[in-house]
Amino acid sequence: MQIRQLFDPESSTFSYLVWDNSTREAALIDPVQSQVHRDIQLIRELRLILKYTLETHVHADHVTGSGVLRQKLNSIVVVHEDSQTKCADVQIKGGDFIPLGTKRINVINTPGHTNSDISYLVNGAVFTGDSLLIRGCGRTDFQSGNASLLYQSVRQQLFTLPGDTLVYPGHDYKGRCCSTIAEEMAHNPRLGLDKSLDDFVDIMSNLKLAPPKHIHEALPSNLRCGVSGKDTAITRL
Amino acid sequence: MQIRQLFDPESSTFSYLVWDNSTREAALIDPVQSQVHRDIQLIRELRLILKYTLETHVHADHVTGSGVLRQKLNSIVVVHEDSQTKCADVQIKGGDFIPLGTKRINVINTPGHTNSDISYLVNGAVFTGDSLLIRGCGRTDFQSGNASLLYQSVRQQLFTLPGDTLVYPGHDYKGRCCSTIAEEMAHNPRLGLDKSLDDFVDIMSNLKLAPPKHIHEALPSNLRCGVSGKDTAITRL
């Protein structure tokens, strides 16, 4: 399985193109609408077939490219079953796996940043969305966020993966590309092994962050896959 | 050999931390001075010994972190022998190799963006500085740049590497992380296989780019490794 990291500087969002080299089938994790032109060009140049777009959660800081990519490349929009994203084609939940060529992508429920976060596990790499960032994590103060639940997700779901599992986050604001589970266990200042649940809840309660700049456009738009139009008939994987 | 990509958003510069997992010896390719604090923290968290800083060329768009890293971590400043960087500890040239733990880094001369560009080849990945960018290349209109020479460097040195060699460039301005030799041979709009030397020279002669914003500070500063002080005694590897 091949991985190509892509970055949107405006929202500091990472997208990830993941593909099976033998069949050329690909999935794009967390596509950003303003980068769709770049991403389609890359998909074409690499001679890939975009089978899925996979969301880690309903984003508040950028508009998803999933709907536009479906229109242009006929890809399948995949979201968590609790995400209220009625425009999607397929709903998934923790424990499911997504077939991609001769490989599979494992779905892990990691709620807490929102009520319906997913991490995707592929071949020794985990795409953690905003559940686990490099030396940080997503905020828990809106979109049904819940600090206790996020602590549990990271500690019981992500920190039980092998230590050398590569962590590919949904964002980074300091120019870092990735981490490993072992690094985050040792050095994450919020969720590292030296932090208790009470420590974490206390940290998250005192962040005093301003709302994301684009939340009022991004949330309703993302519940429509970033495009206007009718709801689709949702199936299960 | 492990690779960690790092980004400086102000100058869109990539640095690369490369290390041998068995000995923990590391090299930092193209460190950026304004990111030295971040980089030292990462080096310490990963329990690495920074043995070298490796420059791909004398940069015009940012100040190197090599001198500060030498002061703080006792690393060896490595540059090309033709770079006029008198503050360096070690001079190298194409054909040399740099031992790193149980591995080695191969040095390839790829001049043309400046008169003394180096690419570093490590375990199926090549760090190309500004000689080869993703779907582009560095400019050739100052610092002894020479479009014909750059064409020759890319075609004869880089495009003769295996097609699946990962290309890690010195910059990207569109949120892309890396490429492969095969991709650039097929899709680089300046240097792809469909472009002749005359095509390339013509393209490079007509870019009409403004000078880099920080060239007047960066160039003289980088010839002093980004710090003031006496020249060091230069040795050969």
In the CATH hierarchy, what is the architecture of chain A at level 2? 4-Layer Sandwich
Uncertain runs of chain A are none
Termini separation of chain A: 21 Å
Output the CATH homologous superfamily of chain A: Ribonuclease Z/Hydroxyacylglutathione hydrolase-like
Quick one: CATH class of chain A? Alpha Beta
Overall tally of domains of chain A: 1
CATH-defined topology of chain A: Metallo-beta-lactamase, Chain A
Largest sheet of chain A: 7 strands, mixed
Which shape of chain A, going by the Cα principal axes? globular
Approximate strand percentage of chain A: 25-35%
Order of strands side by side in the largest beta sheet of chain A? 1-2-3-4-5-6-13
Structural class of chain A: alpha/beta
**Count of helix runs of chain A:** 6
Give average pLDDT of chain A, whole number.
Answer: 95
Tell me the total number of β-strands of chain A: 13
The ordered string of helix (H) and strand (E) elements of chain A is: EEEHEHEEEEEEHEEHHHE
Chain oligomer state? homodimer
User: Which two protein chains have the largest interface (Cβ within 8 Å of the partner's Cβ), and how many residues from each?
Assistant: A-B, 19 and 19 residues
